[in-house]
Amino acid sequence: MPVEKDARLKVKGVREPSSGLFEVISDKGLARLGDSYLNFLYSMALSEAEGKPTGARLKDRTLVEVAKATGIRSMLPNRTPKGRVADSIEALIVYTLLRGMLKFEDMMEVFRRKLYDPVSSLEEIVREAVNRLT
Amino acid sequence: MPVEKDARLKVKGVREPSSGLFEVISDKGLARLGDSYLNFLYSMALSEAEGKPTGARLKDRTLVEVAKATGIRSMLPNRTPKGRVADSIEALIVYTLLRGMLKFEDMMEVFRRKLYDPVSSLEEIVREAVNRLT
Question: ∠B125-B57-B85 over CA atoms, to 5°?
Fold first, then answer.
């Protein structure tokens, strides 16, 4: 699979988990980075939708919904707390950004196409990420 | 001043305050967007510094220190609460990103040069932003 590095959003010398999907969605460091990334991405999409700068944080509930719809939830143990389920989506999406599999602008395009619906946009991004990882 | 739009981080159709520095640092929508942007930028810089993905939120205290050192604090009324002082830095930095005056990668370069010290890095970014705005 050709992986094109994103010149804008690269981080030098960051070790990324090179292994499979389960390792990625379980990585706590990726989840922390992904939390800030997803809130920025969502705030940029929301700003574009509203036609003026604004910001908002994605709720765990929203990310859990995405995890269920895309099958990511079923890869985690049954009793995984809601916050850790949300983490899995944050980790996976920022991982595809760091690896250059999807770029920031690609993700913004998904939000545009999905009329800025966060659940539906993030579902499409996660499906694309899983396709590229497996 | 030549302003090159950043192809990666553009937002379509967002009205930006076209006016002066005071309007920018007082814009609440920009502050909300800037909050998510600065936390993402800082988390990426921190990930690079530590050599592995991680994330952290910038404290208001840190941003107040930057506002004082760069003279932005003195443009705001004396009794402005700490959170609103922090907002002014968030608004200004994301405004320079939206206008393409400084790109994400330019800001990451500042963090690298300043050995990832957040106060010192953000000070340099704010000084550069003010130079380009005034």
Answer: 60
> Is the Cβ pair A33, B55 closer than 8 Å?
yes
In a domain, A9, yes or no: no
Report pLDDT digits (tens) over A31-66.
999 999 999 999 999 999 999 999 999 999 999 999
Spatial separation of the C-alpha atoms in residues B89 and B70, rounded to whole Å: 10
Count of domains in chain B? 1
Q: Does residue A7 fall inside a structural domain? A: no
Is residue B17 exposed (0-12), middle (13-18) or buried (19+ Cβ within 10 Å)?
Answer: middle
Q: What is the CATH number of the domain that holds B121?
A: 1.10.1520.20
B128, part of any domain:
yes
CA atoms within 13 A on the CB side of A101: 17
The domain in which residue B67 lies consists of: 21-133
Cβ distance B8 to A11 less than 8 Å, yes or no, reads no
Inter-chain Cβ pairs, chain A and chain B, closer than 8 A: 121
pLDDT 10s digits, A90-133:
999 999 999 999 999 999 999 999 999 999 999 999 999 999 98
- B53 contacts on A by Cβ (under 8 Å): 14, 16, 27, 29-30, 32-33, 94, 98
> In Å, how far is A45's CA from the nearest CA of chain B?
8
Residue B90 located in a structural domain: yes
pTM for the structure as a whole: 0.87
Rounded CA-CA distance A49/A38 in Å is 16
Q: Which chain A residue has its CA at the smallest distance from B108's CA? A: A11
Cα–Cα distance measured from residue A108 to residue A112, given in angstroms and rounded to the nearest whole number: 6
